[in-house]
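Q: I have two molecules that I believe assemble together. Could you output structure tokens for the complex as a whole instead of separate predictions?
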Amino acid sequence: MCLLMLMLLVLTTAMPTGIWELKAQEVEGPRLGGTLVIAISGDPKSFNPDSQVDDMGYPIFSVIYNKLVTLDINYNVIPDLAYKWEASPDGKVYTFYLYPNATWHDGVPVTSEDVKWTLEAIKKFKGIAYGNIKAENIEKIECPDEHTVKIYLKEPFAAFLQFLAWYGTFIMPKHIYEKYEDWMDPNNPYLNKPVGSGPFKFVEWVKGDHVTVAANEKFFKGRPYLDKIVYRIIPDPTTAVQALLKGEVDYLHMRPPLAEVPKLQKTPGINVMIRPTPSRYYIGFNLEKAPFNDIRVRRAIAMAINRTEIVRKAYQGYAFEAKGFYIPAISWAFNPNIDVPPFDLKEAEKLLDEAGYTKGPNGIRFKAKITYFTIYPCEQVCTVIRDNLKKIGIDVELEGLEIAAWEEKVVKRKEFDMALCDGFHGPDPDNIRFRYGPGAYINFAGWNNSEAKELLDEASKTVDQEERRKMYWRVQELMAEELPYIPLVDLVWIYVSRSEFHGFPWEPESQGKVGYYDHRLVWWEKGKPIGPIVIEAPTSIEAFAGDSVELKVKVTDSEGAAITNATLTVNLFKNGELIRTIGASHTGGGVYLAKIDTSGLSGDYTVKVAATYVLKGFKMSGGESISLTVKPAYMKYLPYVAIAVVVILIAVAVAYRLIKKRREEEEEG
Amino acid sequence: MASMKAYMTRRLIETIIVVFFAMFVNFFIINLAPGDPARIMTGEFGYACPEYVEAMRKKWGLDKPLHERFLIYLANVLKGDLGYSYGYYSPVAQLIAERIGATLLLMLTGIMLAFVIGTLIGAQAGRKMGSKTDMTLSFINLMLWSMPVFWLGLILILVFSVWCGFFPTSGMMSVRTEYHGMWKYLDILWHLTLPAITLALAELPIYFKIVRASVIEQTSEEYVRTFRAVGMREDKVFKRYVLRNALVPPVTMLGLHLGYVLSGAVLIEVVFGWPGLGRLLLEAVYRRDYPVLMGMYLVTSICVALANLATDLIYMILDPRIRYR
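A: Yes, here they are, computed for all two components at once.
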């Protein structure tokens, strides 16, 4: 026990807790420009984002297209094409309000008709989201105006919004697809060169090598910071890591080999971030078969499996031991009061004895087989389980099958004892219904509990989250009581990126603002600075009416580099009222010249100089106020008059003296 | 010459029969494999509802009985249509055509390098059997032979790409900067270097071993002794007679090798991210993309059959003793 405690301690210190923090940023604020190269492991299937499951295409679709709403890194629903939405109190009508300035990459505006067409197409052509959003449950879709969509459901469906935000629900351009009878018509050239509405525009797809997208300068939420994203297709993760170390790749959209992770964490210039995902590995029993139909046997097996050891041996520590019967990542639906039976070999042996499976002369109670699919590290997980169960006298044989064969044998023909499975448990707890729920296709254990079935069906129609929470908590209790499945480990996502790029969807500055694969806010340290541009000009000028004043201003970016292509607006104000606009021209080296004609002016004025400058579609601006005092034109001659008066006075004085002298001489003479 | 023509005609007909037979076997083996392509296509369990899976199955004709599907497939192939990939949503012929360039570039460079270098050093080792040169070369050869090719590839990446920085780690072209005109081709060659060398190093031992053994065998032939006895220069004996005769087996090997040129080098393509046909084949297996699989096998079997034909022809030129009936 002491040893186990020690092991736990070592694991908790070695494991993810400390990895959440990121290295301090050395460069301030977002910058513009640069190419982000992302390693992905395979080609997309096509660029129709809604027609089929396409895990390689999904990250690319996420920057080319938009959904109505999307999920951020924490699986919260956030705005995408719709800036606002409402559900009616009965949960049957959803209203979405679209950004009015959204356009497709070919310039056509995005309207509510596109949304309507997309959702109807998902229903008509049986898109991948057909089941998720329950397309048959959509009664009608109305477009009261160009930027409002109303979706009427037949039955309330609690997870509707979550599923709309998730997979296969990208809004597609009606004006392109409606020309073809089938949305996967091979004659449609846009299947291979998509037109979307997202922050990046498609550039090219060299099959097997890369997909390139470029910044959409007219994106309705503002231009993305990067110029380009290249998705490099590198099937081997080891090579991808080498490419990252060499700087050919900036971010891995794949899991690095776990053995490389500690090295990557120590490498300067590389950021490693580890976050839990809503994906979980679990084991299911064949409930129709002895001895697994006996709850005592199932409980004994659950108690004998050392999940700490699985995390350590099969995942090198890069996973979390599963807690409870749903994923903690979706916290409101997770029942924290119940847990998987604790690791206890003695109790396990006792339960097996009670169930009548006593040890034979060779120390074996019975034989069992675990069927798994040959994806790393299923075999390693099962090997640990085999060693664990051997200790309580169960002789386990491993059977690794290719995934399709696994499905055939386990799900369809039910020829198995225990089977290992994994899967995504989000984005809504309705997932429990179609994963573990009685009657669900992949409920391979064949769990059949009428109370659970009723609760799950009811919860999927209830809008009130608190009501739903109660029902899901009860279902988790039932799962814990009957143990048709034993949760094993929750997976982590390991984000590896080069540290000269910032603003990834998992970083604090982008959380809650972008979808989890949207790199719109990613920026590069070596890009051009964004921010107010600086105008150097005199703070005040004095002039006489009628003069032409030459105003020289220098325009630079925030780092002092001259901007030669700025548009300057020089406005003359008096008491806040615009008098006139003055033209300005560039004279070289970022110095601009404006000539102000002052005839007819008098008194105090303000000259407002505003500069705007468009860098790669990104508009930046800056301004400066200069005070101008115009004196009356005669003031200009005052000094001359003064001099003239003085000269005349002197002349008069001199003349007077001379005359006086002459008179005195005459008098003397 | 008439007999030659008749021979060629017969061989051609045989080739066609072989290809047809291969097609038949391929079709049934692929389609009888466990696992339902419609399910694989529709992805992870739980997210594909039965209606969706059924719609896909119908769309790709997977709901029809096997023999009917074979007849449809056969008719299409005869029309020159290799089918439509449901993993990539493109015609299979187009998918294969897109990658043929990259595959030929890698395979031909690698195999020719292996053939030339393997033959040269193999002949050298065989000529000086038992010498220090022979021992060293044989030892290096054995090492290369026992190295797993993906490992060799990774080591080359580590040394020449990451440490020395001479070559890119992977891919076929630079993506950060775009090159045009001649620079584009040079860029591709630069990317080709490491994968081609890996392939050459991996294939080289076969040629080395064959040539070495064959040279040794030829050297012990009586005609060599006779030539030496009449005082012919050792150099001439070797170059004109021994080497020429010893080349027959490696050329056979080369023929076999070139037959598989279109199936690509899967492991090397995966390690180096080279967009060749080997990866297409591998991905088709994962995706249960039957049309692509059958298309690839068909192309490969045609290629193998043609390569065999070509090898027979080269035999005739190399060795006048070989006569055909």
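A: One point stands out. The mean pLDDT of chain B is 85.
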